[in-house]
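Exercise 7b. Backbone tokens:
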């Protein structure tokens, strides 16, 4: 069983869009390693579930992918760039190409659903967008994305009036507004009921396949990971203890 779990997910001829090798992260010299020798590949069109209890290093790994965690050693390659050696402007560009979804949605409750989605275009905004005057093309795209996630009928309503599941779909549409090369979803269903959890996770998986981008989603519920991901990576105390295709681990 151990050999199966730690076997590479599969032999692929395409190059991973994100490649992590022997990653070690420590927040201060007097603290233990938060990540200790982590290897991870993220391929286009694939949904990877990152499993682990609180404190296992899931959130830190996601932060390391966008330069928000201090890399002590090892490498994080996004495309052809090494995240550890990017300058401030280069990091901003990397983050603008990374869609992020969080447990608490991070919407502005008093603003309309449409405006919340439009804020996803601010990463590449011109002067007008920065002043809150969004381009008509951006508005059209935002409405298309809201339709894609099944919530366009709520476009004019304040975000705070929506249910948790609806708000998370707005957050996903906002992430898509960035035209991301990868999506990182950190515990996106932890605050949702089981039915809506399944809906949101299947939406993320559909996006990975249709947009041909990797989606990394952290979870703590094994059945959800088995049902809604292509590959599972398990973390414990900052080390990978499980890695394999979902079909193999579910067998």
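Sequence design result:
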């Amino acid at each position: 069983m151990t050999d199966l779990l730690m076997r590479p997910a599969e032999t692929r001829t395409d190059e991973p869009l994100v490649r992590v090798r022997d990653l070690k992260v420590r927040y201060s010299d007097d603290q233990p390693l938060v990540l200790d020798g982590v290897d991870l590949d993220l391929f286009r069109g694939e949904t990877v579930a990152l499993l682990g209890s609180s404190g296992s290093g899931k959130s830190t790994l996601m932060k390391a992918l966008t330069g928000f965690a201090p890399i002590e050693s090892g490498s994080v390659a996004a495309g052809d760039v090494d995240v550890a050696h990017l300058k401030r402007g280069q990091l901003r560009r990397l983050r603008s190409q990374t869609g992020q979804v969080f447990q608490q949605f991070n919407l502005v409750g008093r603003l309309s659903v449409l405006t919340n989605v439009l804020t996803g275009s601010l990463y590449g905004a011109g002067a007008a967008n920065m002043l809150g005057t969004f381009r008509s093309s951006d508005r059209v795209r935002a409405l298309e994305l809201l339709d894609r996630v099944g919530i366009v009928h709520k476009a004019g309503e304040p975000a705070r009036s929506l249910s948790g599941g609806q708000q998370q779909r707005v957050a996903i549409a906002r992430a898509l507004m960035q035209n991301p090369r990868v999506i990182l979803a950190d515990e996106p269903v932890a605050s949702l009921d089981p039915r809506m959890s399944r809906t949101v996770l299947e939406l993320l998986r559909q996006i990975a396949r249709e947009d041909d981008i990797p989606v990394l989603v952290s979870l703590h519920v094994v059945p959800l990971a088995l049902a809604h991901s292509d590959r599972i990576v398990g973390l414990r105390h900052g080390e990978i203890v499980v890695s394999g295709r979902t079909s193999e681990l579910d067998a």
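Instructor comment: The radius of gyration is 18 Å. The beta strands are 18-25, 35-42, 47-51, 71-78, 81-82, 98-102, 182-186, 215-219, 231-236, 239-245.
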